[in-house]
Amino acid sequence: MAQKTEKDLVGYLLKNYDRRIRPTKYWNSSMTITIQIHLYSLIDVDEVSEQLTLLLWIPQSWKDEYLVWNEDEWEGISKINIPAEYIWIPDGTIFNIVDVKEILSLSQTYARITSHGQVEVDFNKLVSIRCPMDVRNFPFDLQFCKIQFGSWGFQLHQLTHNVKSAVIIPETSENSEWQIESFSSKKVQTAYESSQGDNINEYEEIIYTIVLRRKPLYYIVVLLIPTYLIVSISIIGLFIPHSADGEREEKVSFGLTTLLTMTVVLGMVTGEMPKSSIGLPLLGQYVLIETGVSIFAIILSAVILICNERALNHCKPPPVWIQGLFHANVKNRKDPLCQPLLTKEKDYQRSASDQLGLTFAIRTLIEYYDEQRERDFNKNLWHRLFAFVDLISMLILLILNTFLTFYTFFPFIF
């Protein structure tokens, strides 16, 4: 008698096999599919289109009552491998899928079959799923993405699932921007009304939940810290003296440059986020806050500049409390040297010539230079006052800017 080979066994099993129907001998019996999804790799997270791309390894096993043989009759063969395209395959489908690519076709995927009819097949899929994003805490956000898996055509009484714990393969699932926090699964039963509306069809679904945490280091270094530093430098530039003698120059253009920079940063943030009505991302809120601080600093600097110019043009000495603040003693009168200098010199010359007295001329010159010295002293005192106001304003705004930064991100960083 000729020795039976694996080829003969496969021919025997598939001779009258029909892969179109469930491999159960009784139509009213239920089949159980054992499934365990492995997250092999997190390929991409597209926040704008709200899609998640994954490489999944999906081993499935079930009992095929038509693929059974007696090992003793077949030379002790206990297991065979045949292409999966020749046998019945469960129609498990990811419902919220956007795109799918089979890594291996059914002709390249082999089913492992035991003599008791136990079938095991490993499916490898590159899938893109729909994942609504909640980016309100960006870049410290936590995303919950779901994979809805189930049979497309078989109802609950025809096919059920034995779900094993979802697995993350740590060696290959790492992503430069996202940390996979967890990967869990649960079974749910869903009921759908039939197309005729005369009965309810129940199906079993498996909901896999992937929890992703964004790694914020890139956004902290590239956006958060530069935004804070730009506004801080802008505040310093608005209130620091522009020359050694305390002269004040036009500073609004410097502040407007900062506002333009904030607009560019805000555009960078919103460009990476989905157009959602949930709310502005946390980093976007921070940029708006920093923009508000910059606007307030520009307005405050302009007010101080106007007050300084008015004080000098009105030729009045500082109030007594300001003199006391700087330990100064200034005569409380209007500065006569605010009048044109040439006119006063002519008056002095005419007065001296009229008196024709050398003593009177000398005394007049002394008074003239005393008044000039008093005017310079008053001017210097006003400069000292507004320099002090600049310093206090700068310190307050820097402290406010630092406080707002820590207040905004403290719950997420510490």
UniProtKB/TrEMBL annotation:
The chain crosses the membrane at residues 217-240, 252-271, 283-307, 385-410. Coiled coil: none annotated. Residues 223-331 form the Neurotransmitter-gated ion-channel transmembrane domain. It is a multi-pass membrane protein. It is found in: Membrane. SUPFAM superfamilies: Neurotransmitter-gated ion-channel transmembrane pore, Nicotinic receptor ligand binding domain-like. Belongs to the ligand-gated ion channel (TC 1.A.9) family. This is Neur_chan_LBD domain-containing protein.
